[in-house]
Write a structure and sequence with these properties.
With about 240 residues, the protein is of the alpha/beta class. The protein has seven helices and twelve strands. Strands 1, 4, 5, 6, 7, 10, 11 and 12 form an eight-stranded mixed sheet that branches. A two-stranded antiparallel sheet has the order 2-3. Keywords: Isoprene biosynthesis, Nucleotidyltransferase, Transferase.
């Protein structure tokens, strides 16, 4: 599943774009990024992970207009010194990521796009993706799927899909900035809204390298994810 790597290149000027402009629909509408995880909000964990990672120089936070002031205050409270700007997102993930990339410092070489809703990302997962993108231009963490996979048609199993080459992709997805800008602008031009950013880069015919994700790097999407994240957090603290 994981290909051959070029020699490690030192990553330069890496900006994390944390997208946090979603609507938490599947959580029932309450802002999931402000739900407490341990003693602090989900988003504070996410920001702290990138603050801690030595391979990331800057952070740009993308959110809804009404959250700009509270999120700026949240970042100040939790000592996020790498935060450069908090900017307004768009109606689709692709639009939000594009807003974040455009707001990154001008000399940014690599952009690490990360879901605000993935608070348990580790330094190892971030760094491996950053180094792979420094060497290859595009990289994303993946985990092999654990279940058997079926295609369902009209409520009935229609086909079995062999899982040995299947993986679930996570974030941070890291790209050379010009490549990501080209991919997102092309997606916007075509009116394409992708669920992840690799898809926009793949659509240009560019390879995206698979790095090691983690089963703990979960995305907070539905209510039971909070209970799972709490358990994972406690395990880390033991
Ligand atoms: N227009 C959007 C949509 C999503 N996101 C961000 O992308 C990440 C992954 O999206 P998801 O988990 O789907 O978040 P929501 O869009 O909030 O969830 P839902 O689809 O249930 O409304 C989240 O951190 C979310 O805030 C964003 O910045 N802008
Ligand atoms: C980017 C992502 O987290 C990769 O798994 C995922 O595609 C986001 O999807 P969502 O539909 O916005 O939750």
């Amino acid at each position: 599943m994981f290909g051959k790597r070029k020699k490690k290149a030192v990553p330069a000027a890496v900006c994390a774009v944390i997208v946090a402009a979603g609507s938490s629909r599947r959580m029932g509408g309450e802002n999931k990024l402000l739900l407490p995880l341990g003693d602090v909000p989900v988003l504070a964990h996410t920001l702290a992970a990138f603050e801690k990672c030595a391979d990331v120089r800057d952070i740009v936070l993308v959110c809804r207009e009404q959250d700009i002031v509270p999120y700026t205050e949240l970042a100040r409270t939790f000592g996020i010194s790498k935060l450069r700007t908090v900017t307004r997102g768009g109606g689709s993930r692709t639009a939000s990521v594009l807003a974040g990339v455009n707001a990154a410092p001008e000399d940014t070489a690599l952009v690490a796009v990360h879901d605000g809703a993935r608070p348990l990302v580790s330094e190892a997962v971030i760094s491996e993706a950053v180094y792979a993108a420094a060497a290859h231009g595009a990289a994303a963490p993946v985990v092999p799927v654990k279940d058997s996979i079926k295609r369902i048609e009209n409520g009935v199993i229609a086909a079995d899909v062999p899982r040995d080459t299947l993986a679930a992709v996570q974030t941070p997805q890291v790209f050379a900035r010009p490549l990501l800008l080209r991919a997102l602008n092309e997606a916007a031009r075509q009116g394409q809204a992708y669920t992840d950013d690799c898809a926009a880069v793949e659509a240009l015919g560019q390879p995206v390298y698979a790095t090691h994700g983690s089963y703990e790097n979960i995305k907070i999407t539905t209510p039971e994810d909070i209970a799972v994240a709490e358990a994972l957090l406690q395990k880390e603290e033991i």
